[in-house]
Amino acid sequence: MTNGPVGEDAPSTGQPARVSLRRAFGLGHAGRPEEPDSTCMAAGLLDGATLALLGRPSGDAERQAALAKLLPALQDDPAGAVAGLLAGLLASPGALARPRSDDLFDSVVNGVFRAMLGREAGAEGLRVWRQLMGATFDEVPLEEFVFRFISASMGSGEFAARHAAPLEAALRNRLLPPQAGVGLSTHISLGQDGFTAGLLKRFDLKRWSGPFDWCSTSPAIIRAILADDFEQFLDPDAWRTIPLEDRPDGRFWQCHNPGYEQRHGHACILHNHDMTQEWAQVAMLRAVERFRRSIRSLASKLVLQVVREGTDPGREFLQTAEALEGIGRNIHFVMVSLLPDATEGPFPEVEPALARGPHRLLRARLMSPLQGMQARDLLDEVVLLRAALVAPGLGEPLEQP
Q: Could you give the angle at the alpha carbon of 121 between the alpha carbons of 117 and 123, nearest 5°?
């Protein structure tokens, strides 16, 4: 990568060693054995579709025989398996001869809801869907309506949260490097905005909420917060509510801290807490107490900070590493400094730039821009996080001069 080197604590070969792709990505190691269990979803699909299209639950023997065929089919060709199941039920005697009525509409909707979402639509849900698709139900053949309604259900946010999100989390977990030995037991976000916490959460590495998870600020302000052990940060009089009309997004951008901003020349925004409100003060105190306990514990922990590259990332890294050493133990601090502009790929670029004991500064150039708490390209997140997880073990620690 270009954009200027970051100096090392002590000279070695004169150039920082690049992350070994084989080591960073754990090539040669067996992946995690867990596979998503599709039995529950297959059973729900079968039961819901049978009740919706035949007006009765499936019998035990019928259900067992159907599942024996459906489960392997879902693994090989999910779309074909669903189509085959519905085609078979629709071909059953009397399936298409049933009268077109509100009862049939309700049966189809509730059956799909049970199969796709694990619940019934409810009276209000049925009313809404009659308004949205009642005319379609009367105009098209029953099998076409079922396919259309299933497609609409699978496009909902609820379906994504119930099925797609867990599958995506399982996929992300399989992309992490395998741990050898004891490994890191805790992963803590140190900001500088919500991307770091979001990254850890998406890869199922975030076990609790911390004070910097939804805070947009600078490394210098974070060090100031650590220096006085959150005293000013927890002071409700130091915060000001951001009026709703001034928020880029009305759900977030709750309050800001003029004191930190004036001293450090950088915004300090809390996005999901309004510290002028008692409920937010109580919630934030709990987050701070969790952070204190974890940072001081004997457990080996990764403290991750992802920042946009400033004028002197090396100085920022060393000062933050020193601040963390003063308040905790068994800390592996990794700061990832994101270079401007995107790489042309085919992979994001990551290289170690500086070391202080077990702490590492990485510089990275991604392929896609960050959008809120997420990178547009999953590969950016995979490479960045894998590099951060293996960085503390790369080579011999360099001594601070």
A: 165
Give 39's Cβ-side CA count (13 Å radius): 4
Strand 359-365 with 331-338, pairing: parallel
Q: What is the pLDDT of the chain when averaged over all its residues?
A: 81
The sign of the dihedral angle between the CA atoms of 136, 141, 144, 150 is positive
Q: Give yes or no for residue 7 having a pLDDT over 60.
A: no
Q: Going by C-beta distance under 8 Å and a sequence separation of 6 or more, which residues neighbour residue 260? A: 217, 221, 224, 225, 232, 238, 266, 268
On the 0-12 / 13-18 / 19+ scale of CB atoms within 10 A, 350 is: buried
Q: What Rg, from alpha-carbon coordinates, does the chain have?
A: 27
Distance CA 313, CA 95 (A): 68
CA triplet 122, 127, 130: central angle to 5 degrees?
120
Identify which of 1-10, 49-58, 100-109, 211-220 has the greatest average pLDDT. 211-220
Could you tell me which residues come within 8 angstroms of residue 202 by beta carbon, excluding any fewer than 6 positions away?
168, 169, 172, 374, 381
3-state secondary structure of 215: strand
Q: What b/e string do you get for 130-153 counting C-beta neighbours within 10 Å, with b at 16 or more?
A: eeebeeebeeeebbebbeebbebb
347 and 323 Cβ atoms separated by less than 8 Å: no
Phi, psi of 218 (to 5 degrees): -115, 160
Residue 395 corresponds to which tokens in the numbers above? 């080579």
Maximum CA extent, the chain? 85
How far apart CA 271 and CA 254 sit, in angstroms, is 5
Question: Which residues neighbour 277 within 8 Å (Cβ) at sequence distance 6 or greater?
Answer: none
More confident residue, 233 or 150: 233
The CA-atom distances, in angstroms, between 23 and each of 8, 122, 363, 394, 395 are: 22, 52, 17, 9, 11
